[in-house]
Write a structure and sequence with these properties.
With 375 residues, the chain is of the alpha/beta class. The protein has one domain (11-371): Metal-dependent hydrolases (TIM Barrel, Alpha-Beta Barrel), CATH 3.20.20.140. It is 46% helix and 15% strand. The protein has helices at residues 15-20, 36-46, 55-66, 71-76, 78-83, 88-104, 126-146, 166-175, 199-207, 222-230, 262-269, 278-284, 299-304, 316-319, 323-334, 338-351, 356-371, and strands at residues 23-29, 107-114, 152-160, 181-187, 213-216, 236-239, 247-252, 255-260, 273-276, 309-311. The strands form three sheets. It has a four-stranded parallel beta sheet, sandwiched between helices. Strands 5-6-9-10 form a four-stranded parallel beta sheet. Strand 7 (247-252) and strand 8 form a beta hairpin. Helix 6 (88-104) runs parallel beside helix 7 (126-146). The longest helix has 21 residues, at 126-146. The radius of gyration is 20 Å and the shape is globular.
Length: 375
């Protein structure tokens, strides 16, 4: 006996159903998405010392370290994943496995981001590193198609906020924008490293009409978000969850009255997508002002007040999660039903850095997937 969409209660959407639904992932770091077993194998080949050498134990160590409540400590876990991704073979393998894991999670489109400047220690150029990732993604997509799964994956290239190679990265994005690279990002320590440090790169991207999504509103607040919008001309906000600091909600005669500050109003009214990653936000302390449990995360408040909310895993390895896992949190803690989950996927489809025709195709896939549930 099958279960129809109409029969599913909002607070009882099974994980199996969630995995089968077509999903879109907009905020996912390649160097945070490695399988523990792959890290162990690559570390052994590279002679890199890991804190734990069995895959299960390494996974636990990553999640424990990432869950310290500090973004700085969270970022330290990447020392190990970046260290094992310094050869073309390693980058190809991890990109291919990344696509395999997307397919297993029911993802039909993903925009994977990573910082090529961090993968040149072994002699690779950034151009060679990007080509290796492109090859791995292509192998994964073709293998998925042969197995009957439709998935598309593009790259977002990051420059490190505390580094000095953003102009090089921006030029690489421009050069490869017709070869699967769709946007630019600034990643790394947010507080103290504003987009203004990378003004030349950001102006080049604006002149070339290349999309930008910037990490903002994670480790820093409204000022960082305003800077991402004004200086970076960001079309999406990486995390952006601290936009909630610019929102006041009062109760008047039992009715919630929402008052948006200027920055929050700008973001909501223009539909600027928030790339929210609930588990990661809890781990890094990005939402500590609202609480430390999933039910205190402001994602639901932002969704209910009309923000263009999208949901992604950020770093699958460090957070021990997937897109399905993040949606499951919303089902469990906020009672989201299929209508809510479908809206989140449509939000992501409309915000994807793809031509309109391709976004329309994604929207059709979402419609078919949700309408066909239980058929």
């Amino acid at each position: 006996m099958t279960t129809s969409a109409a029969e599913l209660r909002p607070d009882r959407v099974p994980d199996g159903i969630l995995r089968d639904l077509p999903k879109i992932c907009l905020h996912d770091h390649l160097d945070g998405a490695l399988r523990p077993a792959t890290v162990v194998e690559l570390a052994d080949a590279a002679g890199h010392r890991l804190p734990v050498t069995d895959p299960a134990g390494l996974g636990r160590w990553m999640r424990r370290s990432a869950g310290s409540g500090s973004l700085v400590r969270y970022l330290e876990t990447f020392e190990h994943t970046v260290a094992v991704l310094q050869t073309p073979e390693a980058l190809v393998r991890c990109a291919r496995e990344y696509v395999e894991d997307l397919v297993a999670d029911g993802v039909v489109h993903a925009e994977v981001r990573w910082a090529p400047e961090q993968h040149t220690r072994g002699g690779l150029s950034m151009v060679e590193a990007v080509e290796a990732v492109r090859l791995g993604l292509s192998e994964g997509v073709l293998a998925a198609e042969d197995a009957g799964h439709l998935v598309s994956v593009t790259q977002i290239l990051c420059a490190m906020r505390h580094g000095d190679r953003s102009l090089e990265v921006a030029r690489l994005v421009v050069a490869d924008r017709d070869r699967g690279v769709v946007a630019f990002d600034l990643a790394g320590p947010e507080d103290g490293f504003p987009p203004a440090r990378h003004r030349e790169a950001l102006e080049l991207l604006a002149d070339e009409l290349v999309p930008v999504t910037l990490h903002a509103g994670e480790a820093a607040g409204i000022t960082s978000i305003r800077d991402a919008l004004a200086t970076g001309r960001a079309l999406r906000l990486g995390h952006g969850v601290r936009i909630a600091e610019d929102i006041d909600i009062d109760q008047e005669d039992g009715v919630a009255v929402v008052d948006l500050g200027r920055t929050a109003g700008w973001v909501r009214d223009r539909g600027i997508a928030l790339e929210i990653c609930p588990t990661s936000n809890l781990q890094t302390g990005a939402v500590a002002a609202w609480g430390t449990s999933p039910d205190r995360h402001p994602v639901d408040m932002l969704y209910r007040t009309g923000f263009n909310v999208t949901v992604s895993p950020d770093n699958r390895l460090m957070s021990g999660t997937t897109v399905t896992g993040e949606l499951s949190l919303l089902v469990e803690h906020f009672g989201y039903g299929l209508e809510d989950l479908e809206r989140l996927q449509r939000n992501a489809a409309s915000a994807a850095f793809l031509p309109l025709e391709d976004r329309d195709v994604l929207d059709e896939l979402i419609t078919e997937g949700f309408e066909g549930l239980g058929a």
